[in-house]
Amino acid sequence: MLSIETADLSRTYKIKKTRKTPASTLVALDKVNLQIQQGELFGLLGPNGAGKTTLIKILTTLLGPTSGSAKVNGLDVVSQSRELREHINMVSGGETSGYGLLTVRENLWMFSQFYGIPSRLANARIMELLKIVGMADRANTKSSNLSTGLRQKMNIVRGFMTDPKVLFLDEPTLGLDVGAARDVRAFVREWVDSDPTRTLLLTTHYMVEAEEMCDRVAIINQGRVLACDTPKALKAGLRTDAIYTLQVDALEDEGFEALKDLPGIRTASRKALEDNIELELVLEEDSVLTRLIQFLADHGSTIRTLHKREATLEDVFVSLVGVSMKDVENSNADQDYQE
Ligand SMILES: Nc1ncnc2c1ncn2[C@@H]1O[C@H](COP(=O)(O)OP(=O)(O)OP(=O)(O)O)[C@@H](O)[C@H]1O
Ligand SMILES: [Mg+2]
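^ Those are the sequences you sent over. The predicted structure of the assembly is below.
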């Protein structure tokens, strides 16, 4: 059974004119078609500004689509939003929810009452969940006195507490330390696995998060879904076992362009380091390496280091977009700065 379904879902934002720029329209989601099955742990992976939060806001009825449609748990997000809200919950990383004056337990209890959960059941769930995230000893701490990571854990408890059919987590591990992030991931995975009628959609721009915990991942950039499959299938699409990272002392633009055209090189990217230039190459097969080494020697480029590693979803992103997710984010930041 389908849990989440979107049909040509689009959303634009009107950008007001300023003294320097005229009014414009920004396309945040561009004809998104997703079908997510009940029981799936589904990930949206994409750089800053890709449209992940916009999509989550539409699916949780907080924002209307500009065109197209979406259903969650069989209910239309626009015409059946009231009913839909009873079956879903949402937590976003870095949010400052709750009242600082109330304790962790009081805050969570208050939210449980918004959902009409009987008080005794709510209290039991709260304590159980706090234990799971390792916060049982903080139940009586004022939420204003929590660290960022602990506050995020409290928010996560708030999401699970209502036992939703479909749960949306927007950057759930943002701001958590390595250990806490690992705990949250494990808990999320177990929550989905322990009841086949549950579905969880999360957004992330952490590759490991998408790769290690999600059943399927949609890679999204500039409002478009570029690929959607299991992490394994996405990586298999690269048709390679290995990625090579080389540091060379120099390689001019011209040389790099010629290198990209060498037979057997699927994708190539280049990054300037302090002293060296780092090349990241996806080769058709290991034997292409011989040709590559010869090519670099012919172009007066000395190899300083060479590493072989397994393909990751980051490589899938590069193969789809042409640049890394970091580079997309940096160029977005540059644009903002210029504006
Ligand atoms: N209220 C708004 N008004 C105008 N533009 C907006 C608004 N909200 C989002 N945008 C723009 O829409 C695009 C998508 O934003 P969105 O927040 O959905 O991205 P995201 O994938 O969640 O990014 P991040 O990883 O940074 O959270 C961005 O270009 C953003 O600047
Ligand atoms: Mg976001």
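The chain has a mean pLDDT of 92. Residues 2-230 form a domain with the Rossmann fold fold (CATH 3.40.50.300).

Shout if you want it in another format.
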